[in-house]
Design goal:
Blueprint (H helix, E strand, L loop, with lengths): L3 H11 L4 H8 L3 H8 L7 H8 L11 H10 L3
Length: 76
């Protein structure tokens, strides 16, 4: 599973954007981009999603019980 930090940094570089460019286009502060790419904790999900939307993605909370239920359904 790819980390958020790796995903954002890789996609930003593929798009040939600086951290400043991405921050401006996503409508977030430069510190948000830096925190994401440095894998810092305590990130605002709304701000993270503003960045991820630039690449056609979004994060959402997942209930661990739902994950366990889905995994049980896929067993033979």
């Amino acid at each position: 599973m790819e980390k958020l930090a790796e995903f954002v940094k890789q996609r930003r570089k593929q798009a040939q954007l600086t951290q400043e460019d991405l921050a401006y286009r996503a409508g977030v502060a430069l510190t948000v981009i830096r925190k994401i790419e440095q894998d810092k904790g305590n990130l605002n999900l709304e701000k993270v999603n503003q960045v991820l939307k630039m690449f056609g993605h979004e994060l959402a909370p997942v209930n661990s019980r739902e994950l366990n239920f889905e995994n049980q359904d896929s067993r033979p």
